[in-house]
Amino acid sequence: MPKMKTNRSAAKRFKITGTGKIRRRQGFRAHLLEHKPTRRTRRLGREVTVEGGQRKHVLKLLGK
Known about the structure:
By secondary structure, this protein is an alpha+beta fold. It has helices spanning 8-13, 38-45, 53-61; strands at residues 14-16, 22-24, 48-49. Strands 1-2-3 form a three-stranded antiparallel beta sheet.
């Protein structure tokens, strides 16, 4: 059976840290920022960890 290909769109969106955690950027930060509170846009700028059932799905997409 051939090797499984890495999903390229997932590879661009997720990064695996040295300790094995999966990091991702948050959405709702691309446009229409004028009416969003500054506090909210700052919070959305941080990276967050992928948790729970999504973690297994992302790892499969990344071929891990």
